[in-house]
Design goal:
The protein is an alpha+beta fold. The protein contains 40 helices and 61 strands.
């Protein structure tokens, strides 16, 4: 046995085992190579063979294949034993070199598969943690499985259950002795095994023949032979394509060498008694279904299975024959050559006697047959003795599929009125014609029957009637049924419900219908006279066409409008750059598609559009992700990157992400100037950004200060307000702490009773951040608040706000009584008193009691501890009083030695957020300063990137002075249009509430703040110094800021004396994206982003533009914001919850249940409708609020898109050039008026950016006005009448309205327009503007139409209601089986009378009569009718009644209207269209 050697292609294939290949393809290849695949086991559920997965096991090769039930396509390849095949990945052995697959049994057992280190370090690289599957309960071995997953491939590692812990690092765990080498490997389609396994058998597959293209290295083999002609005596002519000589097969003479020379090598070679494949059911086996090795499983003598390639199964005992060099076959070399792509098999055996000459052969002419066909020489010993031509039905077991072969029996000469017998001829006729041909060779009917029966039942490989051509396949559908063998047991091997008949040289196997159909009397068919819709437009988009449609409707359209309208002032939609650090999600789709729809609407309005995409590429998230990737790549060693190393890794990650995201955006049909896309890491962008910074320096708006900022210990950088998110349920340890007063103010002393001054008086503060107490520098009171001096049984006196005593006494004093010693002490009387902070140590200074406006009696004790180094308000009030700020906390959020100078080891290195508060309180409690502690839930800021809490910490940072420009910014906003209106107040609140903007970040990946520092750390930042640094960056690149020597003088502006070094701070990413207005030459018409950008990009753009642009007004004219995406339960989408939806899942329809086809063997229909499905969801959503997405919403839009397609298909199939000259009826005028109205309303909605309103209008119009009214009323005229109407106008109008929303559908519909339209120079829907008329001026519209239509529709609704009642009582079926009388007020009669000649068509009934209410006595008249149903409706002059009655005339057999004068004769209109032929005598 030779080893199976194969390359591993993750997500694609294992050698020729290609995912998506059919079961027949795989079995054909496997059976053609018995040396490599000596045994196959096929397992499936016989009771449900097309529903349950099918499994093929290759035990000798250690491989298992899984096929889905409905299509039998390969979905999963599993390697269960790595030692039985030679597998490689990118030319590296999957099984580590040195682990022999053939030698060294002990070694193979110890290393049955690749080790984790081999996979992780050498083959596939790092990946995310996988999942652990524990052992079964009671498993004594205690081994679980760890599933390590990569995109398209996964490995399972046996792992000791005792070693498993979810807290352990999976790399060290799988590298330890507790883990064994991989036990198995799986190849599948999907990003990871957990994601793929749930939809392994239901995901949509590319229908292209990937098997053929991969294995043959070319496109699927075409049908080279278009016809096989059968001449009798074993002569077959294989007719090629036009102009190529035919190939002849003469049974008994043609050699296998000739077949190979002309037809090429066979697709497979089947041997006689090919018993290598055993077939098993999924359920327990019984004697009926078991395929054993015994000889009793050979075909029974009466077997009807002529496809020997699959009938002979079970275990083969002749492998040694093939291995010894025999031709694939039995000992004699007999075999079948299978030419699958030509649709036939050829049996090669020892020569047999040709079949006898057909009686009519003397009249047969074969001019093209080559002369001189002679028997092969003795060395050949094998000749073609039988050809099996495959028909249009399955082969001999339930999973075999064959390509169809077309044939003709030439010696059956057709008589007058007959056709040539071919593969389309019903078998009854074939049988009759053959009986007639061969009847002369039999003495009587009994002999004919006997001999024909014998021919069928007693044949084997070569003993059919002479050398033969067997025709496998039938002409009628099977309805099931089971065969039984002679013993009465169910035969599972054959086709099922079949019949056979044979003649010399021919054996037919035919599927029977099994159902007796009633014989209908002969009637004339009028279908050929009808003008039925015909269109090539498919019901669902063809995947193979999507690429060309995508290019036409996106790239080509953008280029066309840019060129054709180049002289126009453009409409500029400025892109809010997405962040380049991850895969696209549904929020990206909402954002980018909204922008694309706006651009397309503007193109339709005649504007030239400029939309240049951008990407935000700097910042901490990208830096962190890049560092993580570097650590994964260097798992075995320490990875410490310097600043330039970090920048290179981050740039590489951002570049790849931009490429991936751009590809995704373009697949959504987003049209843009992709070649000019900008990135914030581009040199040109960075230079312009530094220019904005320089301008702000020149205007005195940039300064540096030691000031408290939001600091993220997890990110080790300062954060701006826009980089925070607030957690509502953060829990802190709050504390009441007392500080003894060391000196009293004179005002307080004056109020104290005699002797009280001798006691210790303490002030009580309350804080939620006890870790800030080491930085305490003052205690604040409010001068207008009233305070008390109280005592609770001790000699110590406490100062507390009067209004707070009752709230905090239970916490401070429990049940002890509280004595008020002095009341009515005002806060201003406490000012000037001093106290000591014990945490500052023995060298501490007296600290003051001060006034602060932010102190209130709403919470705490009414006294606030101030730490100017850890609080914004504290900093402001203390700075005015000359109190310095201190922040004894490092970059990682840990205490420094300055936090507790007396015993620095108590606090140094401890995290302020993790145990810091408790440690501070322990120190204070030693002096009995802590009075009480409790847990406090409150709102607290978190880092929006790391999702961890931040602190406020004073550091040296760069700031932008927003306070000096925000009034100008607010004034600019007055010119802006906000959608929705609430966006104005939201943006104003952020601008008003901001006076400074911290723009410096302590990271490497970003644009440097171009500041120089002298030896004392004093910064130099001037217009001249920044301009000089920009010039050096422009010359050397921005990376030189980090790579050049520290003392490189080139960076020092001329004239600046002394030693200077370059700073390490980078700019806030909001400054990056906020400078993107420099990428446009004019004010943008639209900015569109999510509502969170009011505090982010919208605000930063407005502030930088106001500060540095020199332009009048804001950077945008219109500001549009959209909400967030929610699942169908209203929850925010989150990966941790598992409720996210990928845009690709909407495009491929995998979120929707598959549609089952009504055809018997059709399987399921894919729900994929392409990018238009995603676009339609976006357009149908009210984006001004949070947008819900889930299966119900997607199903609704899916149905709407299918409705569009069906409507377009109907229009395409029914449009005719002759309709342009046909009369315009009042019904046509109604349709045109409705079309004009909806187009106007939709255009208005699009112009106001209310796309969901426009779609609602379209859906309502299609459903109510077009489908259920106009098209329904028009069917009779379209199919049976003159084919007129206004469908062409409706087609163009519908495409106009859909163009911005579903451009792929519009392009596809335009591509499938009728030939006569393609011959005309019509303007493409993408190139039409709203000014281009859809309705020709020649179509004059009645001005009364629009006012009349509502009343006509009222009558239509009433008629339908009455018809439903009649239908429920089984009086009518079709609406044409009724006539209608409208009883209307006299004043309203003229309205309906104007349409009298068309009312029957409008209401789709056989006749309509209009009467006035007073002219008819309803009771007496109605009694004349077989049935009568009534419904009321409104008219402009009062109530009216619609009566549904039996039809007056007879049914026309062509148009089915009841208007024919005589039964079974045509009506007058149909008589004119189709003259009735004279009856045949």
């Amino acid at each position: 046995m030779s080893l199976f050697t194969a390359q591993v292609f993750p997500g694609q294939a294992l050698g020729f085992l290609v995912l998506g290949a059919t079961l027949h393809d795989i079995l054909t290849r496997l059976k053609a190579e018995p040396q490599r695949f000596p045994k196959l086991d096929l397992v499936y559920d016989q009771s449900s063979p097309v529903k349950e997965p099918v499994i093929v096991i290759l035990p000798t090769n250690g491989i298992r294949l899984r096929f889905d039930g409905p299509e039998q396509r390969l979905r999963l390849v599993e390697v269960l034993d790595f030692t039985k095949s030679q597998l490689t990945y990118k030319d590296k052995d999957v099984l580590r070199p040195g682990a022999s697959t053939l030698q060294g049994v002990a070694q193979a057992e110890s290393l049955s598969g690749p080790t984790f280190r081999h996979i992780y370090n050498r083959l596939l690289g790092p990946t995310f943690p996988g999942e652990y599957i524990g052992p079964e309960p009671g498993d004594e071995t205690g081994m679980g499985l760890y599933m390590l997953s990569y995109p398209g491939i996964a490995f399972s590692f046996p792992l000791s259950n005792t070693a498993w812990s979810p807290r352990k690092d999976f790399v060290s765990l799988l590298s330890s002795s507790s883990s064994h080498p991989a036990a198995s490997m799986a190849i599948f389609r999907g990003d990871s095994w957990p994601d793929a396994r749930e939809r392994l058998y239901v995901q949509t597959l590319d229908p292209r023949d990937s098997f053929t293209s991969l294995t043959k290295g070319k496109d699927p083999v075409p049908d080279e032979f278009r016809l096989i002609r059968i001449y009798g005596e074993g002569h077959l002519e294989l007719v090629r394509t036009d102009g190529v000589a035919p190939f002849w097969i003469k049974l008994g003479l043609t050699s296998p060498q000739e077949l190979v020379a002309v037809l090429g090598p066979p697709d497979a070679i089947y041997r006689k008694n090919d018993q290598r494949m055993s077939i098993h059911k999924a359920r327990p086996l019984s004697r009926t279904h078991l395929r054993s090795d015994s000889t009793e499983m050979r075909l029974q003598d009466d077997s009807t299975d002529t496809d020997q390639s699959s009938a002979h199964t079970a275990t083969d005992d002749s492998d040694e024959d093939a291995e010894n060099g025999e031709v694939a076959g039995n000992i004699s070399g007999e075999c079948f050559y299978n030419y699958f792509y030509h649709g036939f098999d050829v049996l090669l055996s020892t020569p047999t006697t040709p079949s006898q000459c057909p009686p009519s052969k003397q009249a047969l002419d074969r001019p093209s047959e080559p002369e001189g066909i002679v028997p092969s020489d003795a060395s050949s010993r094998l000749v073609a003795s039988k050809v099996i031509l495959h028909g249009n039905v399955p082969g001999s077991y339930p999973f075999n599929r064959h390509r169809r072969c077309r044939w003709e029996v030439q010696y059956l000469m057709p008589k007058k009125g007959q056709l040539v017998v071919d593969s389309e001829t019903p078998f009854k006729e074939i049988e009759q014609r053959l009986h007639h041909e061969w009847k002369s060779i039999y003495r009587n009917a009994e002999e004919a029957k006997s001999r024909q029966r014998g021919m069928v039942l007693n044949r084997d490989w070569g003993d059919s009637p002479g050398s033969s051509c067997e025709l496998l396949g039938g002409w009628e559908d099977s309805v099931g049924g089971k065969r039984v063998d002679p013993t009465g047991m169910e035969d599972v091997r054959g086709l099922g419900n079949t019949t056979l008949f044979g003649f010399p040289g021919l054996v037919f196997e035919v599927l029977k219908n099994g159902i007796t159909m009633p014989v209908r009397p002969p009637t004339k068919s009028w279908s050929s006279t009808l003008r039925l819709p015909k269109s090539s437009f498919p019901p669902r988009p063809a995947p193979g066409d999507q690429a060309k449609y995508l290019k036409r409707c996106a790239d080509d359209l953008y280029e066309w409008q840019s060129h054709e309208r180049s002289a126009q002032k453009p409409f500029v939609l400025h892109d809010g750059p997405p962040y380049a650090n991850g895969s696209l999600h549904i929020g990206h789709a909402l954002n980018k598609i909204l922008k694309d729809i706006i651009c397309r609407v503007k193109v339709q309005e005649g504007r030239r559009v400029v939309y240049v995409p951008g990407w935000d590429c700097h910042g901490l998230p990208i830096e962190i992700k890049a560092l993580e990737q570097q650590r994964e790549k260097n798992k075995d060693g320490e990875t410490v990157l310097d600043a330039i190393g970090v920048r290179r890794a981050a740039r590489s990650l951002a570049t790849k992400t931009v490429k991936d995201q751009m590809k995704g955006f373009r697949e959504w049909g987003v049209m843009a100037d992709w070649d000019k896309a900008w990135k914030t890491m581009d040199k040109t962008f960075e230079i312009k950004q530094l220019g904005v910074f320089q301008e702000m320096v020149k205007n005195g708006l940039i300064f540096r200060r030691y000031k408290p900022v939001y600091w993220s210990p997890s990110s080790r950088t300062a954060l701006a307000e826009a980089e925070l998110e607030y957690k509502e349920d953060h829990v802190s340890t709050a504390a009441f702490v007392k500080f003894p007063l060391a000196s009293l103010s004179e005002a307080l002393k004056a109020q104290l009773p005699e002797g009280m001054e001798e006691n210790t008086i303490s002030v009580v503060i309350w804080t939620t951040t006890p870790w800030t107490l080491p930085a305490n520098r003052a205690i604040a009171v409010h001068s207008d608040l009233e305070y008390l001096i109280v005592r609770n049984g001790t000699s110590e006196l406490l100062i507390i706000a009067s209004s707070r005593l009752s709230q905090i006494a239970p916490l401070l004093f429990k049940d002890e009584p509280v004595e008020v010693l002095l009341g009515h002490v005002m806060g201003q009387d406490l000012e000037g008193s001093q106290y000591i902070n014990p945490l500052r140590g023995k060298d501490s200074e007296l600290q003051p009691i001060i006034h602060a406006d932010f102190v209130s009696a709403e919470s705490g004790s009414g006294l606030v501890h101030c730490a100017p180094g850890h609080g914004m308000d504290d900093y402001e009030v203390c700075t005015k009083l000359g109190i310095d700020a201190a922040a004894p906390v490092d970059d990682l959020g840990r205490f420094t030695a300055a936090a507790f100078p007396d015993e620095p080891e108590r606090l140094v290195g401890k995290s302020v957020l993790d145990g810091g508060s408790a440690e501070v309180l322990d120190i204070l409690d030693l002096g009995s300063n802590v009075m009480a502690t409790h847990k406090y839930k409150h709102k607290y800021p978190y880092d929006w990137r790391t999702k961890l809490p931040v602190i406020i910490r004073a550091t040296e940072q760069w700031f932008a002075d927003v306070g000096h420009v925000k009034d100008d910014a607010l004034q600019c906003m007055e010119e802006v249009r906000f959608i929705p209106d609430s966006g104005r107040a939201r943006l104003e609140s952020f601008v008003k509430g901001r006076s400074e903007w911290c723009i410096s970040r302590q990271r490497a990946w970003g644009v440097p703040i171009p500041a120089l520092y002298d030896e004392a750390g004093i910064a130099v930042l001037t217009d001249e110094s920044v301009a000089h640094i920009i010039s050096v960056i422009n010359e050397r690149s921005i990376d030189a800021w980090w790579t050049d020597p520290v003392d490189d003088p080139a960076w020092i502006v001329p004239g600046l004396e002394g030693n200077y070094k370059r700073g390490k701070d980078t700019m806030d990413v909001w400054f990056d994206s906020g400078s993107s207005w420099t990428q446009t030459e004019q004010q943008a018409d639209v900015y569109l982003e999510g509502t969170d950008q009011h505090r982010g990009w919208f605000q930063s753009s407005l502030l930088t533009h106001t500060s540095a642009s020199g332009r009048e007004g804001p950077p945008f004219k219109t500001l549009i914001t959209h909400g967030f995406t929610l699942d169908d339960k209203g929850k925010k989408m989150s990966k941790s919850i598992g409720n996210t939806i990928a845009p690709s899942e909407i495009i491929d329809g995998s979120l929707l249940p598959p549609v089952k086809t009504k055809k018997k063997a059709g399987g399921n229909i894919s729900q994929a409708l392409g990018p238009d499905a995603l676009r339609l969801w976006v357009a149908s959503s009210d984006y001004t609020r949070d947008v819900v997405i889930g299966q119900p919403v997607l199903q609704f839009n899916h149905n709407a898109l299918l409705k569009y397609r069906m409507t377009i298909k109907m229009l395409l199939g029914s449009m005719h050039r002759s309709a342009r000259t046909a009369p315009v009826t009042k019904l046509d005028q109604i349709a045109l008026s409705q079309l004009q109205t909806v187009m106007t309303e939709v255009a208005s909605a699009y112009h106001n950016f209310e796309f969901y309103k426009g779609l609602n209008l379209i859906n309502k119009w299609i459903s109510s006005d077009l489908s259920s009214f106009y098209l329904e009323a028009m069917k009779d005229r379209l199919y049976c009448g003159d084919g007129g109407g206004v469908l062409e106008e409706i087609f163009h109008g519908l495409l106009r309205m859909l163009t911005p929303i579903t451009p792929h559908l519009v392009e596809e519909a335009w591509d499938h327009r009728p030939v006569w339209m393609k011959e005309e120079a019509q303007v493409h829907p993408f190139h039409r503007t709203l000014e281009d008329p859809v309705i020709p001026t020649s179509r004059q519209l009645d001005p009364n139409i629009l006012t009349d239509v509502p009343w006509l529709l009222n009558a239509n609704t009433a008629i339908k209601s009455a018809q439903e009642e009649a239908r429920a009582n089984k009086h009518i079926g079709s609406s044409l089986e009724s006539s209608v009388i409208l009883r209307v007020p006299a004043e309203a009669k003229d309205l309906f009378q104007r349409y009298a000649d068309e009312l029957a068509s409008i209401f789709v009934v056989s006749s309509v009569e209009v009467q006035t209410v007073v002219s008819l006595d309803g009771a007496s008249q109605d009694a004349e009718y077989r049935f009568s149903y009534a419904a009321m409706f409104a008219t402009p002059k009062g109530q009216a009644e619609a009566l549904v009655l039996p039809p007056k005339d007879h049914k026309c057999p062509r148009c089915w209207r009841y208007v024919a004068p005589v039964e079974d004769e045509l009506c007058g209109r149909c008589e004119e269209v189709v003259p009735v032929p004279e009856p045949v005598e």
